[in-house]
Design goal:
α1 crosses α8. Helices cover about 45% and strands about 20% of the residues. The strands form four sheets. The protein has a seven-stranded parallel β-sheet with strand order 3-2-1-4-5-6-11, with helices on both faces. The chain has a two-stranded parallel sheet with strand order 7-10. The protein has a two-stranded parallel ribbon with strand order 8-13. The protein is an alpha/beta fold. The chain folds into two domains: about 200 residues, Rossmann fold, CATH 3.40.50.720; about 90 residues, UDP-galactose 4-epimerase, domain 1. The protein starts with a strand and ends with a helix. InterPro entries: Epimerase_deHydtase (IPR001509), NAD(P)-bd_dom_sf (IPR036291). It comes from Gloeomargarita lithophora Alchichica-D10. Belongs to the NAD(P)-dependent epimerase/dehydratase family. Its EC number is 5.1.3.2.
């Protein structure tokens, strides 16, 4: 199958790229490399360097590559940045995404896989773990953009018959991750603990998240590939882990003990999050396979190599 992955040189996108290539699919990536790393590009992938906001260039790329599936992972991923710069966030995460979606519809693409966000879309949870039918009440521009694009995907399905697979990720972590994403706290902790700096915890550390390993996320992207039906699925573990618990676990893995600095909570961040994952298990037969401690160890090992 011929696939175009936007953001394919980024953290999650590159993991999806790797598993698609390994499965024998033809892969091209579209990335502007402001956050993506050329070192993460698979040697068998075709590379298009462009910006989603350039609609004409995006259209030409889709016309040239003629993918059957588009996997949209390119985004402005920093929730705090979206709060500080909502217009810029919308230009990338709504208008940029729309450029790709419009080109896909006009280019005969059969399936559009969209990297959404459970925590950001649902907002403060009324039910934990949150099912897919939980009210969508985003509290950040980042979340608003994700919900907006989900509505556009439904519109393009109704009007153009473009099937979609919306994957509402929990907090994805693992090798290659930066510090700005939704599970960036793990990278921030690792970097601080390995370099002897004082880690920072915002909001007291009682806030919880559902941490899912990037390898498991890549696997579900493979399992949904080619499913020509409209699907909206939570992708997580269903388990809550507090920031303080996460920090204590990481101190044990690194065999160090540093008292963190506590700062006030940040705007746009929810207090608790965990996703109900029964639907993806039922429909795709997928469930997360990597325990948190094992995934953190793999992430730590990778960062030790990077930091020398």
């Amino acid at each position: 199958m011929r696939v175009l992955i936007t953001g394919g040189a980024g953290f999650i996108g590159s993991a999806v790229q790797d598993i698609y290539v390994q499965a024998g699919h033809e892969v091209a990536i579209l990335d502007n490399f402001t956050a993506g790393n050329p070192a993460y590009v698979h040697p068998q992938s075709r590379v298009y360097q462009s910006d989603l906001r350039e609609s004409q260039a995006v259209g030409q790329i889709l016309q040239e590559w003629q993918p059957q599936v588009v996997s949209h992972h390119a985004a402005q991923i920093d929730v705090r940045q979206s709060v500080a710069q909502p217009v810029e966030d919308a230009q990338i995460n709504i208008l940029g995404a729309l450029n790709v979606l419009e080109a896909a519809a006009k280019g005969g693409v059969k399936q559009f896989i969209f990297a959404s966000s459970g925590g950001a879309c649902y907002g403060e949870l009324q039910q934990i773990p949150a099912p897919e039918n939980h009210p969508l009440q985003p509290i950040s521009p980042y979340g608003i953009a994700k919900v907006t694009m989900e509505h556009y995907l439904h519109f393009y399905y109704q009007v153009y018959g473009l099937c979609y697979g919306i994957l509402r990720y929990a907090n994805v972590y693992g090798p290659r991750q930066g510090i700005t994403g939704e599970a960036g706290v793990i990278t921030a902790f690792i970097t601080a603990l390995l370099t002897g700096q004082t880690p920072v915890i915002y909001g007291g550390g009682t806030q919880t998240r559902d941490y899912v390993y990037v390898g498991d996320v890549a696997q579900v992207n493979l399992q949904i590939l080619g499913r020509l039906e409209p699907l909206t699925l939570n992708i997580g573990t269903g388990q809550e882990t507090s920031v303080l618990t996460l920090y204590e676990l990481m101190q044990k893995l690194i065999s160090t003990k540093i008292t963190p600095q506590f700062l006030p909570e940040r705007l746009g961040e929810i207090s608790r999050s965990a996703l109900e994952v029964g639907q993806v298990r039922q429909i795709l037969g997928w469930q997360a396979q990597t325990p948190l401690q094992k995934g953190l160890q793999a992430t730590l090992d990778w960062y030790r190599q990077v930091l020398g």
